[in-house]
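[Discussion] Sanity-checking designs against the backbone

I'm trying to build intuition for which residues belong where. Below is a structure token string of 214 positions. I'd appreciate it if someone posts a full sequence so I can compare it with mine line by line.
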């Protein structure tokens, strides 16, 4: 199972940046605080304290709290999301699923577990996406690009066997993603009690198989 830890992937993405050690500490601390307290309830003083730097050091590179947030979201869109998706697609493409049900069951279960395991960090972006159309468009474009490249060949395989409707990969992907998000988002945003993941996977797969059958 391609279970990526978003916080670890973000820390790894900072290693290739031109930021100083203190500036990297500021971004790591910001991600933690935004996830724990929320963007609006986090102050630059909080960030400086957790990062172990002065508040002046924070402002030396990042003029506003919004600048800090954008410095976090950029590597997420450009590096963290592609890395997590790449590992997921690599595992799927080499697994050799015998039928579309098997592929769907694996993918749905894997992404539910991923979403729940990383819901602290994902909550930051879900809340901001609602308020920021530009961020939504950037993420949607990146996700569509990754999805088409990663799953289109597999979709074609099961379309050829008559198991999958003859839609383009983006349309199929949106159908699957929107259904999975319907389960994951309440837990990400409102911290609702988790349902049984295996049961949820089975219910989602049965629903999707009916909707995606030719």
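Best answer:
Here's mine. Compare freely.
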């Amino acid at each position: 199972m391609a279970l990526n830890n978003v916080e670890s992937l973000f820390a790894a993405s900072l290693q290739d940046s031109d930021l100083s050690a203190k500036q990297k500490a500021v971004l790591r601390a910001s991600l933690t605080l935004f996830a724990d307290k929320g963007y609006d309830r986090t102050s630059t003083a909080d960030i400086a304290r957790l990062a172990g730097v002065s508040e002046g050091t924070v402002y030396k590179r990042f003029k506003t709290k919004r600048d800090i947030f954008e410095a976090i979201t950029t590597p997420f869109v450009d590096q963290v999301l592609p890395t997590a998706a790449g590992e997921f697609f690599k595992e799927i493409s080499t697994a050799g699923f015998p039928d579309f049900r098997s592929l769907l069951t694996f993918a749905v279960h894997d992404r539910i577990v991923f979403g729940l395991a990383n819901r602290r960090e994902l909550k930051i972006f879900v809340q901001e996406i609602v308020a920021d159309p530009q961020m939504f468009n950037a993420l949607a474009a990146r996700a569509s690009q990754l999805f088409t490249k990663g799953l289109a060949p597999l979709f074609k395989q099961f379309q050829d066997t008559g198991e999958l409707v003859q839609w383009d990969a983006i349309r199929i992907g949106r159908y699957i993603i929107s259904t999975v998000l319907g389960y994951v988002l309440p837990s990400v945003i409102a911290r609702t009690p988790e349902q049984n993941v295996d049961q949820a996977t089975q219910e989602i797969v049965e629903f999707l198989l009916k909707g995606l059958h030719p």
